Fold each of these.
Amino acid sequence: MIETILHAVLDHPDEGPIHLVGANTESTERLTRARLLERGAEVAAAFRSMGVEPGDRVATFLPNGRTFLETMFGAWMCRAAIVPLASTGPKRRGELVRRRVAAVLEVAAPRLVVGTDDALALVSSAGCPHGTQLVTESAIDSCRGGATAGAMAQPDDLALVQFTSGSTGLPRGVPVRHRQIHANVRQIGLRARMTPEDILVSWLPVYHDMGFVGALCVPLLWGAGLVLSSPEKFIRNPSSWLRLLSDFGGTVSPAPTFAFDVLGRLVSDHRLEGLDLSGFRYAWVGAEPVFEGQLARFQERFRPKGLPEETLHPVYGLAEGTLCVSAAFAEQRWRTLSVDGAALREHGEVEIVAPGQAGALVLVGNGHPLDIFEISIAASDGADAGAYREGRVLMRGPSVMEGYVGLDRRDGGPDPDGWFDTGDLGFTHDGDLYITGRAKDVIIRSGMNVAPQDIEFAALSVPGGDVSRAAAFSCVRLELAREEVVVVAETRRKDEAAEQVVASIRAQVLADVGLQVDRVELVAPGSIPRTTSGKVQRQLCRTLFLENALHGTPSGDGAS
Amino acid sequence: MTKEQALALFNQSLQNLARTGLLPPDLADFSASPDTLMTDLPIDSTGRMSLVHEIETRGGLDLPLDDIVDVETVDDFASVMLRSHRD
């Protein structure tokens, strides 16, 4: 990856300028790739003097911006891997956050941790692994001179450790090699017909796989321009994303589905005046389920702003595949398929029906699998599910990870034949991949994967020990085109005390996980189904919740 | 618009969003007091975007987004609404 970028920069030093947009200001800073590599070499020299060697890892708790980019190149120029982690402010200091930071650093075992002062204070309080040095953001900024030619990263070198919330609740590090990023990013660009004339606009956090591979590596490899904003800016003012696309002539942009939903629904017209989206030709829409209503609403709202009909492209991917697994070609409009909802839900059968027919469920296609992937749909016994059957989505290819960092390949990695079970349910039709559900427990909201165990831990932490057991899961609300987060909690409290428990659960989950709990269902002790070994059965609990069959309910929001 | 009207608009918006399922349903019967901390409301960043949009739509306001990010209490929020109305 770094070698490819270096050659591209040497051949075309002026291609692909990078514009860094301030989080709290309207200011932008322009950076050329040649300058970025110079700075990377300076940072690499400093890293070497701190003892970083090939094969080491450099973890970051940094916001989107120049320091992150310089650290990334500095690490790669030492043949070290970058481990981007969520930067966190002083507001998020709960026990859960500390535990998670400690667990991630234990797995990542970085030589260096580069971060903001706030983040490094959190790392110190969480417990830093032995031998890990903490490096401040300002130390990176002040690295000057001393750049020497170091060993250039090789294709098999580890480039990235991408942390993801595994279904076990323990953070899992996905090791990604330079050749895997290169293979995936090349395919992403081919599908989108990328050229050096393209300008990619992103506000995605760099610690997110879509933000790192999709928003940084894609333009760097393809020689395209990059306008890098921040999630803080998007949250403050969602229309700032489209404003950047309009002002900088942005042509391509990745974002989670919820961003398109927010812009389609929750931004007032006066904030969109003067937008010109006629150059916006490819949007990667993914990181969470995609509903047709969200796409249609966005298209309808921004058609008058010049948005081309073929811009929105639902995509499917996951960190274990480096990023993208399937995507449509640039010239295709998104495709949908109407199936019988009951046949799919109750029997896993894909019965195609006329759009608008009673009971029809409209599914959005995620395009054809990229050419480097084989996709197989497996029945519950592992055999091929066959045509018109829902099954577990398995993938195989050169950008599929070999196994999680620090774990045996048999512990969640691909099988001996190279097939990786994504944990998602789906089927293929006319070459398009359709995702229909999730066999794994992970909760996806606003593009972020959250382990249900984190939510349950927060629920169990409410003051007074009022909750004895909890189960967290999500339910799709088609009419709202989103997943609702549900917490079922066992408690003996009743009446007003129960209302306080509900409020406490919401507050604790919001504080610790940053997630809004949509529904809290209080049940009597012993009501949450468990396995014989005592593990919470979340899927069964969700089924009972949806059927209003959780017994012993003292109070709560109630099932919808 | 008075401060009381701004507070009423805030609460109506909160309750309406709860009734439509975009905010937690127990907010449907909830009325924030001026002293309620914004961080005590059980809504995340997307919920907050919904709230801003609802208030702007119902009240015909153009809220200064940079000013409302760091407001501490519902009363502070209402003050921003009031300024926006006067502007």
Amino acid sequence: MKLAFLSAFRSKLPIRDRIGDWIFPPRGPETGPVTLGQRRVYILPTRGGLAYGVTLLLMLVGSINYNLSLGFILTFLLGGMGIVSMLHTWRNLAHVALRSGKSRPVFAGEYARFPVGVRNPGRVSRASLAIQLNGQNATYFDVAADTESTVETAMPAAKRGLMAPGRFRIFTTYPLGFFYAWSNLDLDLSCLVYPKPEPGNVPLPPAQAASGEGGASGTGEDDFAGLRTYHPGDSPRRIAWKAAARSDTFLTKQFSGTAAAQLWLDFRDIPDILGLEAKLSRLARWVIESEAGGLRFGLRLPNLELEPAAGTAHRDRCLQALALFQPARR
Amino acid sequence: MNATAALTPVNLAAILISLALVGAPHTSHLPVWIPVFAGLVLLTRFYLGYRGKPLPNRWLLLAAALVCVAGVAFSYRTLYGRDVGVALLTVMVALKLMEMSAARDTMVVVLLAYFLVITNFFYSQTIPTALYMLLVVWIITATMIGLQHRAAKARPADMLRHSALLILQAVPVMLVLFVLFPRVQGPLWGLPQINVTTKTGLSDTMSPGDVSVLSLSDEVAFRVLFETPPEKPSRLYWRGPVLNEFDGQTWHPGLSLTVNTLEFEALGPRLRYAVTLEPHERRWLFAIDMPAAVPAGAFLTSDYQMRSRKQVRERLRYEMESVPLYRIGQYAKNWDLTSALRLPAKVSPRARALAETWKQQSANSQEILTRALNMFREQPFIYTLAPPPLGDDPVDEFLFTSRSGFCEHYASSFTFLMRAAGIPARVVTGYLGGEINPLDGYLVVRQSEAHAWTEVWLVGEGWVRIDPTAAVSPLRVEAGLAAAVPESERNPLLGGDRFDWIKQARFAWDAVANSWNQWVLGYNPERQSRFLSQMGFELATWQNMVIVLMVSSGVIVMVLASALFLRLVRQRREPVQRLYQKFCNAMARRGAPRRASEGPRDFAARVSLQFPEIRDSVQRLSALYVALRYGGKNGDMELLREFRDAVRSFG
């Protein structure tokens, strides 16, 4: 306990969080909806609230000095209002339930967006709640009684990979701004960040003839070569619909003449001097352009090979591989 | 962060309206240029905000602030004191508006607005002021709420509703704090500045016309609560300033000494009562002739005046005892009597001559007295609120020429005649009568009841009160001023039969104003400890008060918190479901609890088998429930009533 206390105070978090962490140590990522029970909502006065307190103190002293009975009444009424506003601020946050939504992958340099579903199960509407990822601008939102709102918080995605912002905070100062009620949660938010595609004019690597096809002379796209089972990402135009009608599975027509589009995007083709990230950036750019051009392409990474295919699903698979690529340690 | 977000026009307008409302009452006492300046700043700020134009730069604002401070210094000739403080605050809030560009700066302005509310109470603490300020606080708080709406724009109606809710919920805490917060008698520093306004009320001199002017004023002089009400409270003489020196025109107080004990002989029972005196900026206190006790902070003088040690600047409540039937001053000091005989030389020769004749014709003082009163009674003297103005020699002119006057004319000339005839006499001013408010039992004495009479000193009897006005107009003493003056001179506020409803309304308003004065404005340390001991606090020390205060406000906050929390978690249940649950509970008591898997029809079937004797009514109830809940008949009031009756039959 003593150690927890010390470590809580040595960290660089704001004092509010340090106190909170000390009383209720962070419990690690939680899955599923998290309801903010009474014990998870902390509250402290804001700077405005302290200024209000000082104002009230001045008003009290003035009332005593000038024997202002109505001054006493006003001071006490405003004091009571301060206390009541504390309850309202706390209630505005208590008992909301939060769950993480699914983030759409983004490219590095873009904003990663983390949707959070905030459900208000009670009979009172919540106004001006805010969600804040560490160090980011808060996103304000309202949740009407007995409804759920989805709030998206954004954070610049600097690096490729699986971005996990970790703990975030939900807070409110409503209705008067004198108190700040908050709760820190770790909902295991994550967002896949693709490498930033290399900008500028980047020509695709030369296409190679598909190995084992021989001369490949005179063969065109229309030379039917056979059927294979359908893979996600195959173009619908190539599905053998007649064959599919007869069997239970989709079959994709294979053509022998697609050599021109048989493209390998190979990590090793890019000079090492560029560095790992730049190489991945170029690959990302190639993946995007190849898919946009309707080409069949495969991806070769030092530890991974994705067979040539076409379509957006294939593209996304490739980009994911680039995003999560870890070079072998030596 | 949205804190730096620009102000929305609605929020800006709300702030400006709040400030305009809180500043409006100050316009009556600030130098004219300040409200004009502040008003212009408000309008300019709204224009700039509405059009999205930039605010003036800092140096310009600083220069404007310096000019304003100089202006205030010039207007008040000082930069110290309460009024100057209010003026500076007003000007600075106006300038702060010009600097308020982002939502972040608004907190300061709103807090200043709350603070400006309290400055209004320096000048007025009446019920209308209180209501107006409640309105202002409501609007300022709504403004605060609007500023906190960050996600969606707040509608003004919602802001006002929420603000009203906060204020209402704060009222219990306010009440507890008001009653129990240990009061300290101010001032903590310096002397509160006095209001320089002249108060209506008796003065320490009396010239012809002084009292009759007062009699047109409806203002309350003081209120009295009797322990046991006297039979005719309207016939009580309230003793005020005693005037002993006459210069031919005006009566002055003359010299009087402070005495420690008063010698008097009570001839009747004592009256106990409490007086709540309105502030009159003078030192004298009023008591029924003759005061038999002296409240704390007051002393008596040799001519039986009760005086406060401090000027009465605030409403003052004091407990008094008086003896309406008394004998005083049988053994008056010589110097006392000689001063009560002194007259200016060469003034009013005709009155002197008349007194001289009376003296020669009479055997004793009593006879002279009778002759004088008979003169007022028998000769055509008129009692009027509007006597003709008198010249250089008011006594002679009144006695022999105009012969119409108000009580001060009669008291003045009568005292003059007595002195001229060798009887020590002096003028006593004060109030006569008053009105019992049937609603709260308080006797209200107004300025219009101001009166003047004479005290003469008779051998063996001492100082005796003689009211010459009674000789002229017995009605004044018997039935009050309204009955005594001619009908043409009456005004509605003086009362009278024709204005009965006005009188009733006035009684009602006065009772409210009096409770306000007694319980709200007059709730001082002394009143607090008295009230708390009445409520059963044996030891109303501040430590005990703080403990009770903590406990009771804690209880209030807990109750409020749990009420708010319940609203948060409790789901609303339809009445139909609630009634059906009651029926299920009743069945469970009979030994047939509904299983979780059972629909209403299955349940009814099982219950019918188990208890054939209630089969029909269970089936009917079940059919009603299904119709109401699933049959789209939810809004059918007739059906709902039938269903409710069916449920009730199972108790």
